[in-house]
Amino acid sequence: ETDVIKSITLLPGVNTIGEGAAGFNVRGGRIDLNLVLYDGVQLFNSQHILGFFSIFNPDLLSDFELYKGAIPARYGGRASSVLSINNKSGNKDGINFTGTFGTVSTKLAVDGPITDKLTFSTGLRFTYSDWILNQVNDLDIQNSSAGFYDFNARLDYLINESNRVSLSYFQSFDEFQFTDDFGFDWSNQFLKLGWDSNISSRVTSQFSASISEYESTLFDFEVEKSARVDNGVDNWQVNQNFLIEYDKHEINAGIEVVNNNSKQETRVPINNSSIEPDFAPKDQGREYALYVDDVFEVSPKLTLNAGLRYTLYHNLGPANVFLYEDQPVNSPIVDTLFYEDQEVIETYTGLSPRLSAKYNLGKNNSVKAAYNRMYQFIHLISNTAAPTPVDIWQVSNTYIEPIVSNNYSVGFFQNFD
Prior knowledge:
Elements: H1 4-8, E1 14-15, E2 25-26, E3 34-38, E4 41-42, E5 47-48, E6 53-54, E7 61-67, E8 81-87, E9 96-101, E10 105-113, E11 118-127, H2 130-133, H3 139-142, E12 145-160, E13 163-178, E14 182-198, E15 203-220, E16 227-246, E17 249-262, E18 265-269, E19 278-280, E20 284-297, E21 302-316, E22 319-324, E23 333-339, E24 344-360, E25 365-376, E26 378-381, E27 392-395, E28 403-414
Parallel strand pairs: 3-8
Antiparallel strand pairs: 1-2, 3-4, 5-6, 7-8, 9-10, 10-11, 11-12, 12-13, 13-14, 14-15, 15-16, 16-17, 16-18, 17-20, 18-19, 20-21, 21-24, 22-23, 24-25, 25-28, 26-27
């Protein structure tokens, strides 16, 4: 079926790391270097069944864009690329119903008007793939299971010709178990409020606020040592963008605040296990960003895009920060500093210039070049080559500095008949 992630892997410089592994790579960057936005909300796991499906229901999408070279200044927080995906609004003219029934999954979607000013759009997708596993001539596979679902709902209210409010909700869930050895489950959910306002014929305000939660669990069913390990990320973000259009300029300027709070990692015994319960506190990070960029048509053949983004990052308490004799690895702890809730532990700042140019050689071909500096303050900690849902998201702190990337790109583009 149509799939956003599978589609973008057909583009130059984008590939997957293999079957049974979630995520995608852009020009050699790790999967956590890609910012994935769904209706403007960042996601920490965009895959179903370890990478065989993405969590984006194609029947509900209006558009998507992948930025891997010329990344606008309004996007930040990752070092390699930005994938921005948007859901469609409800249809104003009447109720539309679509349904797809397949051998692996079923999709249902409904949209339409509630009143003259209020529309809705909703969809559900779920799988029943275990019957395929039962066809494999391997007892371990037959005793395994995998499943997922995702649910979307959106309301759009037209206050007047100049103001529109939207409310979006999304939830997805996955579970996977390999015989009686181990298993995973993971989930995403978010709630987002958006307000678009036409201040004048040339100025548009775009405001959004969202809260999201990502949770993942590893199950280990080893005899007498069976346990579950939970982790995840709580996120909230607020963005105010102004779009200004005049003459040959298109300017985006605004402010963004992103808060990532890593969930406390916990280990809990199951099935009368002898494993002792344990936990590991995690960190909180908050980003404040100011940005501006301008798309300027210099001539019919030459278009420039120049932007600047400034980010202030705080690693926040509560936390106990250990001081070491030498390096944090294999070095004795000499002291411990305690920080209160919301107290600043560490501060990082970054200035991100963005510059790109497009020159049309003719009607069907062009040359493009770009430079981006990107700062990333959250990292995926993994002990395997193929990321799994139990890999841990860790924000930058005293000992883990932000990633800084300088991205250069140049290309020749040709549209054929």
